[in-house]
Amino acid sequence: MSALAAMEKTETSNVRELLTVTIGGQLFGIPILQVQDVLGTQKITRIPLAPKEVAGALNLRGRIVTAIDMRACLGMEPRGPAGKSMGVVIEYQGELFSLMIDRAGDVMHLPYSAYEKNPSTLDPQWRAMCQGIYRLKDKLLVVLDIPRLLEGLQTP
Fold first, then answer.
1. Which of 58, 89, 83, 59 is nearest to 71 (CA)?
2. What is the pLDDT of residue 83?
3. pTM, full prediction
4. Of the candidates 90, 88, 83, which has an alpha carbon nearest to the alpha carbon of residue 25?
5. 118 three-class SS
C-alpha cells in the first residue's frame, strides 16, 4: 500500500472516498483528497508540440493549469467536436492539472474490504495508471492512480 493510500485509510476509518467520473462510458474514481475543484467546460489554449495527452492550458483564477486529455491517456477515441467536457483539478508537486473528463458524478464512500488489485485482464495501458478496482452492483469502478498518471506524462 502506498503512503498516500495508507494516509487515506487512516483518515477515513477504513472507508475510501472517491469522486466518480465518467470517461468514454467507463466509471473511474479519483481519491477525494487529491481533488481541488471540479470545472465545467473551459476555454483551453493549445500548446504547440505538446504530447497528445496534453490538451493545452487554461487560466484558473490567475493560475495556469495544464489540461490533460484523459481519453488520450486511456487510449480511447477522441471526444467528438460537439462533445462537452469537464475538468477535475488536482495539484501534484506544486503544479495544477485539470483532468478532462466527460462527466463528474458523486462522491462514493467504499469500504477498503471491497477493494481489489488491478485484474490481469485490465488493459495494460489502464493498468499502468490505475490503483485497483471496485466491483459495484452494475459497474466496474476503476481507481485512478494520479501520481503514476502524471509521472507517465513527464518527459525524461
1. 83
2. 66
3. 0.82
4. 83
5. coil
β-pairing verdict for 35-39 and 63-69: unpaired
Residue 52 carries which DSSP code? T
Closest CA to 21 of 89, 102, 115, 123: 102
Which cell numbers hold the place of 125?
495501458
Under DSSP, the state recorded for 120 is T
Q: What is the pLDDT of residue 51?
A: 85
Q: Are strands 63-69 and 86-92 parallel, antiparallel or unpaired?
A: unpaired
Query: Is residue 96 within 8 Å of 60, Cβ to Cβ?
Result: yes
Order the strands of the 26-31 sheet from edge to edge: 103-111, 15-23, 26-31, 140-144, 130-135, 115-117
Residue 91, beta-bridge partner list: 96
| Alpha-helix residue ranges (DSSP H) falling in 39-133 | 70-73, 124-127
